[in-house]
Amino acid sequence: MACPGRPSCGLPGRSFAGLAARRTPGPVAPTPAMAQTGEMTAPDHPRSSDEHSELWLVRHGETEWSRAHRHTSRTDLPLTEAGRRSALGLPGKLAGVAFDAAYTSPRLRATSTAQLAGFPDAERREEIVEWDYGDYEGITTAAIRERVPDWTVWSHPCPGGESADQVSERLDRFLASLPAGRAIVFGHGHALRALTARWLGLPVTDGRLFRLDTATVSHLGHEREQPVILSWNR
Fold first, then answer.
1. Cα–Cα distance between 83 and 87 in angstroms, integer?
2. Of 72, 93, 96, which Cα lies nearest the Cα of 12?
3. Number of structural domains the chain divides into
4. Out of 6, 89, 96, 183, which residue is the most buried by the measure of CB atoms under 10 Å away?
């Protein structure tokens, strides 16, 4: 959100304008692939009609569990030293870009990344926390597949955790709340990939198509009125 009482927040020279018009709802049409496979179409969700709106995504820096490929949602881990170094490199990737709003997951690994990137005042939002893995918290995909062959978070349930529909519902609420203009989000691997799918009007499960590494920057926007990916995982 805009920083109350301050001329700017984030990196020096980043101007945060006031919050402007909010997104308006619109239907999502089924893709040909959905029609062919019989998959459920993506639920309707609010999307900006402003073709100049942008959403920048930053995945948090490395943690001990991300380095070991252990699923991390509720567990609040700090960044490793390597994670801190990579987060300190983010200002260079964002140089010269002014943002109208900044948001972060409230988890320590995301807030630390936001601070090191120059956004200590980013608004903390529960809607963008990581996918809740339930009983699979702290477990690797390889270990889960010993019990559930071919398991992925995109295609199988997380016992005791969130369903894809639940993730979609909260991410849609977040998208609906975004002001017009350029926003930046500091978050997590699966949640940001799911958020990208919803920006594009796809089901959250299509987030499987977008690999996302730690401490990377991605850029969502529009080509005319069509939501698109402008750059990814850099």
1. 6
2. 96
3. 1
4. 183
> Cα–Cα distance between 98 and 53 in angstroms, integer?
13
Tens-place pLDDT, residues 32-56: 333 333 344 455 544 545 678 999 9
φ, ψ of residue 155 to 5 degrees: the values are -115, -15
Q: Would you say residue 80 lies in a domain?
A: yes
C-alpha span between 17 and 212 (Å, rounded): 29
Residue 22 placed within a domain? no
Residue 199 corresponds to which tokens in the numbers above? 């920006």
Domain-located, residue 27: no
Residues annotated as catalytic are: 60, 130
Q: What is the pLDDT of residues 133-161, one digit of tens each?
A: 999 999 999 999 999 999 999 999 999 99
Residue pair 76/107 in contact by the 8 Å Cβ criterion: yes
Query: In whole angstroms, what is the distance from residue 123 CA to residue 10 CA?
Result: 11
Q: What is the pTM of this model?
A: 0.81
Q: Which of 197, 123, 19, 23 is nearest to 114 (CA)?
A: 123
Tell me how far apart the alpha carbons of residues 136 and 44 are, in angstroms, rounded to a whole number.
29
Q: Buried (b) or exposed (e) across 55-83, using 16+ Cβ within 10 A? A: bbbbbbbbbebbeeebbbbebebebbeeb
